[in-house]
Amino acid sequence: MGIYERKQREKQRRRKDIINAAQKIFSVKGFNSATMEEIASAAELSPGTIYLYFKNKEELHTSLSIDILKYLSIQIHKVVNLDIHVEEKIERFRDVFIDLYDHDPNILINLFHLQSGETLHNLSDEVMEQLKQNSAQAHGAIIQVIKEGIEKGIFIDEHPVAMADVLWGSYAGVVLWVDSKKKLNNQKDFVKSTLITAFKIIIQGLQKK
Amino acid sequence: MGIYERKQREKQRRRKDIINAAQKIFSVKGFNSATMEEIASAAELSPGTIYLYFKNKEELHTSLSIDILKYLSIQIHKVVNLDIHVEEKIERFRDVFIDLYDHDPNILINLFHLQSGETLHNLSDEVMEQLKQNSAQAHGAIIQVIKEGIEKGIFIDEHPVAMADVLWGSYAGVVLWVDSKKKLNNQKDFVKSTLITAFKIIIQGLQKK
Amino acid sequence: MGIYERKQREKQRRRKDIINAAQKIFSVKGFNSATMEEIASAAELSPGTIYLYFKNKEELHTSLSIDILKYLSIQIHKVVNLDIHVEEKIERFRDVFIDLYDHDPNILINLFHLQSGETLHNLSDEVMEQLKQNSAQAHGAIIQVIKEGIEKGIFIDEHPVAMADVLWGSYAGVVLWVDSKKKLNNQKDFVKSTLITAFKIIIQGLQKK
Amino acid sequence: MGIYERKQREKQRRRKDIINAAQKIFSVKGFNSATMEEIASAAELSPGTIYLYFKNKEELHTSLSIDILKYLSIQIHKVVNLDIHVEEKIERFRDVFIDLYDHDPNILINLFHLQSGETLHNLSDEVMEQLKQNSAQAHGAIIQVIKEGIEKGIFIDEHPVAMADVLWGSYAGVVLWVDSKKKLNNQKDFVKSTLITAFKIIIQGLQKK
DNA sequence: TATGAATGAGGTTTCATTCAT
DNA sequence: TATGAATGAAACCTCATTCAT
After folding, report:
1. Which domains can be identified in chain A, with CATH numbers?
2. Which of residues 55-94 of C touch strand F (CB under 7 A)?
3. How far apart are CA D169 and CA C180, in angstroms?
4. Chains near B, with 3+ CB pairs < 8 A?
5. I want to staple B29 with a disulfide (CB 3.0 to 4.6 A). Which of B33, B199, C34, D135 is the partner?
6. What is the value of pTM for the model shown?
């Protein structure tokens, strides 16, 4: 491995460090309450260093989501290409989400927040484009499966984009909503079991009688 | 009407003015970007005055949501007590939401944001309690209908609280998600039609085959 | 005096306090090295307060110069309208400048700095307009006198705007240059006597032989 | 040429590279807005390297001016030693300045800024001394010519140092002032023609009637 | 009760400078 | 000697909140 390569790798590692730290802080405090200094401190770096890797706070935050979307997109595409029943594919989607939620509930919540958020202003064109593309890709894969279900005569024949939106929106909604109930009522975490119920309902709802 | 009563009424009116102004500003700018001065200005009051009616910015914001939750709770309860089929009740729930979204999309989005949000820290016990109660009431009414459906043998027999969560979460998710797509892609507003699809799917999903 | 008037006056007084403090600090430290906190501290105010009166650091700095230009413009116009010889008018200009320099050398230096400076970017249109107008007015009055001299056959007949520029530029240059020598050599202040020499030279230079 | 000498020469060349780059950047951006990184980048070096050749940003900036002063001093001395009329010598001074302005208007402006500037604080004694000496030398040459004029009975007999200051200050002032008007009013560049007028006036002003 | 000027803590961001390689 | 990633101090500015009137 040449020096150049080693440096590139080192740089990527540092970038990853920052992303990890940011994830942790944003998760706990939310976008506005999290400070760059906290994030720097968590990454065991100085504030200035962060700005060598990310243009500003907003772009750092968005980068987290892009990373998740990339991962999600990959996982979802894997499912799409499997040789299994359509309903089963939807169940696999559910599992992908549950896995993600399992890994770090806050990642997911951050992602949904970004999309429904107030920010989205200071992003560079490049990052904005990445966000759109990755988002579209994950979403597109879901639509594809819905269409497959319709074509095979298994799913009801509604507007497939809207149907995919329902699926994705329900994921997001259930996660956000049940998560918020935890905060309000301090109940134990039943996001996962609720998601399972959600998918049971939705899959049945999608099917032709 | 005595002087005391008149004063109380006057006070309530002023409070309502502030809430209306806050709604307008929060809708457009979001929680963090909205400033107390803007809100005061919109209410034709001075910043200081707002603090005579609300403990702080966060509590003002929460009050909006409580108001919506109250209204929502009332509407939902009306539906619960109607002498119509269970499925139809769910459809009516949907219409209640669509009405609300129609009236001001941002109200609803604000509500969902609150619940999934970063705030929820500086609230006084009293406001927190109100929030919980009103939330629980709206939610409870939905659960009740789900249970009714189960008891009548129409709905599948899963954990009814979770089923209600799916319903509510899907509302929220679809609204947030489709709304965010508007921002990202500038597509025309099809939140409402998506919601109709969502409910078609969910109602069918809830039913026993 | 009504309440409104008193408040306006109070506001003006506060504004003046800030300007005075800023003058002091900018004089000693220059634009970039001066900090808003220092200025606030010198004005016995908090940093935030300054921003109630001035949009930003740059506009505060510019306001100083506008104030001087206003004063200068008035003094110069007074001279223009006097019923005295043209050469004498130029001498009076010199005295106006010497007075100003006497009052606060740094004021003048600040003014020249602004005009030859790197900044001039964040100014609001309004302030920019004021700056131009006041600058043009003072300058215009000088041109007027030059023209008068030419018309009366006393001054050489060159491009009068350029001649006025020479006059003004020489003021500025002598002040800046001799002032800088003070810094370099710690000589005692002979700006004033140099200015007198300068005007003797320039007046004779302006005259037809 | 020994190794030592070659190294010295190499070092001087590198130093010159940095100075050239710095000149370019300072010209366009001014002292404060120019960054060391930009300068390093323009010199195709890394920031750290600059600090091997210059103590700090201020000293780098000052070095530019010293270089100009050196050049100026040489040119002025050349004029002093010419066998021509005194008035013509002054005109040659003017041409030297116009040449310099022609070559890079910003160099000159930078020089004047330095002298009237906010910096001049972090300079090492050595650099400070150089600055003083070179400045004194250029200035001294001008004084010498003024004195020559006085001795020959051509120029009025005022304090010759002050007269030289007027000359130099007028240069600086006209350049700075007319240049600033360009910025304010976007008029076309007439610095040079104004300088010519300036010298016409000043030369005549210096002469005995 | 209402005001609104003043506060001042705290946030983001920049950039001259250092130092391990 | 040269590098350039990292530093971290310090600056500008915002805005929720207070309090004298």
Report:
1. 1-54 (1.10.10.60), 56-206 (1.10.357.10)
2. 56-58
3. 10
4. A
5. B33
6. 0.81
Cα–Cα dist B86/C140, whole Å: 85
For the stretch A118-162, pLDDT in tens is 556 677 888 888 888 888 888 889 889 889 988 988 887 877 777
| Contact between chains at A177 and B115 (C-beta distance less than 8 A) | yes
Which residues contact residue D168 at a Cβ distance below 8 angstroms, ignoring those fewer than 6 apart? Answer: C173, C177, D139, D142
Chains C and D touching, counted as 3 or more CB pairs less than 8 Å apart? yes
Q: Which residues of C touch D97 (CB under 8 A)?
A: none
Check if the beta carbon of residue A203 is closer than 8 Å to that of residue A87. yes
Taking CA atoms, what residue in D is nearest to C206?
Answer: D201
Out of A180, A205, A209, the one facing B115 most closely (by C-beta) is: A180
Q: Which of D159, D171, D205 is nearest to C200 (CA)?
A: D205
Q: Determine if strand F comes within 7 Å of the CB of B56.
A: yes
A31 touches strand E (CB under 7 A): no
Residue D1 CB neighbours (<10 A): 7
Three-state secondary-structure class, residue B44: coil
What letter does residue B55 receive in the DSSP assignment? S
* Per-residue pLDDT in tens (0 to 9) along chain C, 209 residues: 566 777 778 888 899 999 999 988 987 787 888 999 999 999 999 999 999 999 999 999 989 888 888 888 999 999 999 999 988 898 888 888 888 877 777 777 777 766 655 566 678 888 888 888 888 898 899 889 889 988 988 888 878 888 788 888 887 777 777 776 665 554 434 556 666 677 677 777 767 66
CA distance D23 to D13: 15
Residue at A208: amino acid letter = K
